[in-house]
Amino acid sequence: MADSPRRPSSAADDLPEVAPPNAGFLVQLFLVPAVIVGIIVCVYLAFYWLAHLGNDPEGYIKALQRNTKGRWQAALNFADDLRGRNGGRLKNDPVLAAKLAAILDAEVASGKPRLSGEEGDQSRTLCGYLCRALGEFAVPEAAAPLLGRITDPALPQIGQAAVEAIALLADNLRQAKRGFPDPAAVNDALFAASRSDDATLRSRAAYAIGVAVGPAGSDRLMELLVDGSDNVRYNAAIGLARQGNAAAWETLGEMLALPDVATTPGDESAQARRYKRVVIVVNALRGVGLLIDAGRAAPEAAIVQAITALEKDPAADVREAAAALQLKLGRLATPVEKAESAVAP
Question: Do 175 and 191 have their domain in common?
Answer without folding.
Answer: no
